[in-house]
Amino acid sequence: MTDECQLFLSKRLVTETKIFDGGVLVDERGVIVDVLERNEAEKLITQSKGKLKVTDGGDWALIAGVVDSHVHVNEPGRTAWEGFRTATNAAAAGGITTIVDMPLNSIPPTTTLENLKTKVKSATGHVYVDVGFWGGVIVGNQDSLRDLVKAGVVGFKCFLCPSGVDEFPNVGAEDLELAFNALEGTGSVLAFHAELEDDCPDDKTTNKQDPEEYNTYLESRPPKMELNAISLITSFLERTEYEMLWKCLLDDKLDLVVSDHSPCTPDLKCSNNLEAWGGISSVQFGLSLFWTQASTRGLDLRAISKYLSNGPANLCGLQNRKGALKKGLDADLVYFAPDETFVIKSDIIRHKNKLTPYIGKELKGVVKKTYVRGQLVFAEGDIVGEPKGKLLIGGLD
């Protein structure tokens, strides 16, 4: 143990399996050396003879930093919507120590090695938390996928339906086959917006029939298509479906919970529901939103570690660096006051556009301090110092 080691104490130290009174010992690199029971931690303090830097959170819970694997930063290209500095600022305030940026809605999207380099250049020096990157699968980019894997993307995302932006076109079955062949043996993940279109009626047949005949109308809309369309409708506003999602989590049928932070400018939200941009800005509040609901359903703080930290890290192949309070992992730590509450107001929002459907909502659980690799990045309601985050990428040369 060197003089630069730190010890973080809490009466409620939270792992995925237990909650106990103890501490986390961190070395000068910002890596966890050990997770200790309180008596072991006190013994270590005595042995250090005042040389060990000790931070005691008291009753605040000490949890692993949240890993949000679904964040649209939109830089470069749509920086009026969001950017690396503002998105990671909001993340740090929300107890998120790692975000993984989606391949869209930036311009260019992360679909080639050169496009990834462009995005990395935009992010360098501007991130308050650590940032990983998803690559994208679009029509015709199968020859770029292995280069992106070598560069360090955590996986790939594609759309089977229109994505909402022209520069990220959706793919079909043939494109997927090409992508699978290109990625075979890499161990990479391919994630889907899984709304693959069903076969449509043959336009050549229906076009030859009298358009004024009712049978022509019926043949252009076979019952199969109507039934399939209805079966895909999910009304998340209905309480029954909402509770079904929670039941899936309580029954351990879900692996993770993330924000899908997808911001935009105010004007894109001011039209009717069919035309408005479909994303929600929530990266800053995901931890507290989850805890507000989870705590009323009998879940304890271990659920945060499991679903918000460890689960997303596993999906992205970051489990050997992130997502848990475990020896050898990065010391991404959060002091969290689970019993305190706060109200979301526009003046506390840190992402670029002060839009979120949660304004006015009272949430349970307040982030007190956020540490990335042992370095304090958020405390007392504000960012601490200049950006200290790293880009989780390599092999760009």
From TrEMBL:
GO terms for molecular function: allantoinase activity; metal ion binding. InterPro entries: Amidohydro-rel, DHOase/Allantoinase_Hydrolase, Dihydroorotase_CS, Metal-dep_hydrolase_composite, Metal_Hydrolase. It comes from the Eukaryota. Residues 62-377 form the Amidohydrolase-related domain. GO terms for biological process: purine nucleobase catabolic process. GO terms for cellular component: cytoplasm. Its cofactor is Zn(2+). Keywords: Hydrolase, Metal-binding. Pfam families: Amidohydro_1 (PF01979). This is Jg9995 protein. It comes from Pararge aegeria aegeria.
